[in-house]
Design goal:
There is one protein chain. The chain folds into 2 domains: about 130 residues, PurM-like, N-terminal domain (60s Ribosomal Protein L30, Chain: A, 2-Layer Sandwich); about 130 residues, Alpha-Beta Complex (Phosphoribosyl-aminoimidazole Synthetase, Chain A, domain 2), CATH 3.90.650.10. About 30% of the residues lie in helices and about 25% in strands. The chain is built from 8 helices and 12 strands. Strands 7-9-6-10-8-11-12 form a 7-stranded mixed beta sheet, sandwiched between helices. Strands 1-2-5-3-4 form a 5-stranded mixed beta sheet.
Length: about 300
Amino acid sequence: MSETEWIKRYIAPLVTSEGADGLRDDVAILSTDGVVIVSMDTLIEGVHFLENDPMETVGRKLVRVNVSDILAKGAAPYEALLSIAWPRGWVEAEFAALIRGIARDFEAFGISLIGGDTVGTEGPLSLTMTLTGQCFGDGPVRRASGSVGDWLWVSGEIGWGHMGLEAAVGGGDAAAVKRYRVPVIGNNDLAKIIAVKASASMDISDGLLIDVLRLSQASGCGAEIDLDRVPLAQPSDGLDVVLEQCTGGDDYAVLVAAPQGAAMPGFTRIGVLTDKTGLSLRHKGKNVNVPVTLGFEH
């Protein structure tokens, strides 16, 4: 059973708060006026980062995967809660490096720590961050508010997470490894554009194609993607290479839907929401089969 099905069957029935939006999105609304939102992400050693990744970069990645969710909703990161399950026997220098990385990006994104918890564990290192955000608009830009005919846009480049992981495991390109360990994400300027112009939005964490499907389904639409338009970390004419990057995950770019004709500085237009069910792909002017695996699922 996929992560999505586990959540739908067991977790979603517990949700009673209107601000949680039935767990259909990456954030919930905390304040009654919808201006303060909250998100939470967990990183586990061996699943979300490698055992030999430097602890400072692990700390920075923890911050950035959370900030990415907040920015994608048209909000600025604000205050954080931090939970650390630290393996027994690990040395203090490693803990200090982890905190140094977290502190570095807290300063960069203007985040204040307001609490949390630390525990020892016999298992792998487990890190959880809860992050609040202050919306630039009247509330968060949901993934469920797109409409048929909206153009689809992405920020940044797709595929660095996939390429960087392969390089980290195989001893490849150092620049790609750096992008995998410390994802390049947006800032408050990007969030302001989303707040003003996007009809629907979400961050791309599990792979472009699976997250396009999630946004379109939440909005009650289908989606058509022109793969030739996707800004790739490794541009290629080969369909297999393109699909690897579009399904690899760990990019933390932002996917938005916006009304046709809207100017979206910092974004690249890649497709459109349609009235058809599911996902369709075009490459070199031709329809191509949708891959069986669209992205990463736990």
